[in-house]
Design a protein that fits this description.
This protein is of the alpha/beta class. About 50% of the residues lie in helices and about 10% in strands. The chain has twelve helices and ten strands. The strands form two sheets. The chain has a six-stranded mixed beta sheet with strand order 3-2-1-4-6-5, sandwiched between helices. Strands 7-10-9-8 form a four-stranded antiparallel beta sheet. It is globular and about 75 Å long.
């Protein structure tokens, strides 16, 4: 008799991602050593022959919740059948009493699953952008550092289709444009580091997988605290939408994310190609040529230029780009615009000047 359907679903999702990771790693390795004659390939790992130390390492980011524990168990199971190593990282944000003890418990659970290396990392959460954004920034910084420290090829994240739907709605509420509506990418980060195998699975499926495997999970009280925007959306907003519009809202929002991502990627590519055509010989942006671009492409060119001068991408909002855009489309002699990262934008002699203020 096979595994529980929910367990089979999470394992299949992880298996597909791991095969992608192995294929990419093999392609990159072959490109680096294309002049070296290929010798006989070693057999895959078995219970009696551990995975070779030189095999790619995949880490799972695990909070101890149902989503990430299901992911950790699936990674541990699938890694034993493939030529790769599997480890885990848990991040202690220090925002709740006893968080250090819980982090140690989560690390112990990952070790019991057979993951190695396993590490619990403590971080200090700042205040920039609000508590949720600050915690996220600290967490990703810790995961990036852990991946570099251990030489990991990929880090798996347990975001589900429900998380994707919430992200789309939050982007819609901010009015941040099509890129925000595209939600979370299945693959993201430097060198395609972050992978999200569960974006096509709902939260209920991964929770069922934990129950079927008798995995101990920890339900973070912050996830049900109405002080947090995402928590209110999860427990009040989405249920209200489903009551008003019927079932299928989560699936529709996730589908919207993928369609929006495809459109946003195409527009970003267009903007990257167009940027060179709107600069003069000295590399300055020409307002007349910018004016001739479609608005969606022009705003992307402006955003790219501002980020290139040092503005943090996460602090650059649609309203900032709209103000710069008015220097092109609604020029009335207005002064310089102050932007995040001590960057300023101003119009001089038919050129758009973006520089450190």
């Amino acid at each position: 008799m096979g595994p529980h359907p929910a367990v089979a679903a999470i394992r299949l999702a992880v298996r597909r991602v791991l095969h992608d990771v192995l294929t990419e790693h093999s392609t990159a390795h072959s490109a680096q050593h294309h002049d070296t004659p290929a010798g006989p390939q070693p057999p895959g790992p078995t219970p009696d022959r551990p995975t070779p130390p030189g095999s790619p390492l995949v880490l799972v980011a695990c909070s101890g919740g149902a989503d990430s524990m299901a992911l950790a168990s699936a990674l541990a199971f699938e890694a034993r059948k493939l030529d790769l190593r599997a480890g885990g990282i848990t991040v202690d944000h220090g925002l709740q009493a006893g968080s250090d003890q819980r982090a140690r418990e989560v690390a112990d659970r990952m070790t019991a699953l057979g993951l190695d290396p396993v590490e619990a990392v403590a971080v200090t959460v700042g205040r920039d952008g609000g508590p949720e954004a600050a915690a996220r920034d600290a967490r990703y910084a810790a995961l990036d550092a852990a991946a570099q420290r251990h030489g990991a090829t990929a880090v798996l994240l347990g975001h589900t289709r429900d998380d994707q739907a919430e992200t789309v709605l939050l982007g819609l509420a901010r009015g941040s444009g099509i890129r925000s509506l595209s939600g979370m990418a299945a693959v993201s980060g430097t060198a395609r580091r972050y992978r999200r195998p569960f974006l096509d699975l709902d939260r209920q499926t991964v929770r069922k997988a934990c129950i079927a495997q008798e995995l101990a999970v920890w339900d973070d009280p912050h996830n049900s605290d109405p002080a947090y925007t995402r928590s209110r959306l999860r427990h009040e907003g989405l249920p209200a939408l489903e009551k008003a519009l019927g079932k299928g809202v989560v699936e529709a929002l996730a589908r919207t994310a993928q369609l929006s991502r495809d459109d946003a990627d195409a527009l970003d590519s267009w903007a990257a190609d167009a940027e060179a055509s709107v600069r003069d010989e000295a590399g300055r942006l020409e307002c007349a040529k910018l004016f001739g671009l479609p608005p969606a492409v022009r705003r992307r060119v402006l955003r790219r230029a501002v980020i290139a001068e040092g503005a943090p991408a996460g602090s650059l909002f649609a309203r900032h780009i709209e103000e710069i855009d008015r220097l092109i489309t609604g020029w009335r002699g207005q002064g310089a615009i102050n932007l995040p990262g001590r960057v300023e934008a101003l119009r001089q002699g038919g050129r758009l000047v973006i520089r450190q203020g």
